[in-house]
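Table S2 (text version). Query chain:
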Amino acid sequence: MTQLVPYEDDVVAWADQQARFLRERRFDELDIEHLAEEIEDVGKSEQRELASRMSLLLADLLTWQHQPGWRGASWRITIRNQRRGVARRLDETPSLRPKLDDPDWWAAVWDDATARAAQETGLSEFPEVCPWPASDVLDQEWLPE
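Corresponding structure-token output:
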């Protein structure tokens, strides 16, 4: 029997050991509770990544809309890249797509986006809720005027 690496002592060594136990079908040695937590955390991490990318995209769109003097090719590229990042997340993790229909999720993402845009632009007057449908936000050709 292998000496168990405690989760609290070294999560990376613990994860390596747990993966080895799974591959070797040594199920009786698995740390089930911590494995379940880590698997749940993977899903939460994917959700945070989507929210972060969407927040950045919305902040970029707000800046585009409210600071027309900054508009240019590099800003378009920045927006395009953010859209691609969001699209990649949704393609790689299709179960996240329902988030785009969740008003609570949008409220939190919009709040982050307006805070980011306020910090970047020095402006503070933005709509209370996102004025754009997700289809526009994700459309590679659409830009707010």
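Notes on Table S2: Residues 46-138 form one domain. Residues 32-66 form the longest helix (35 residues).
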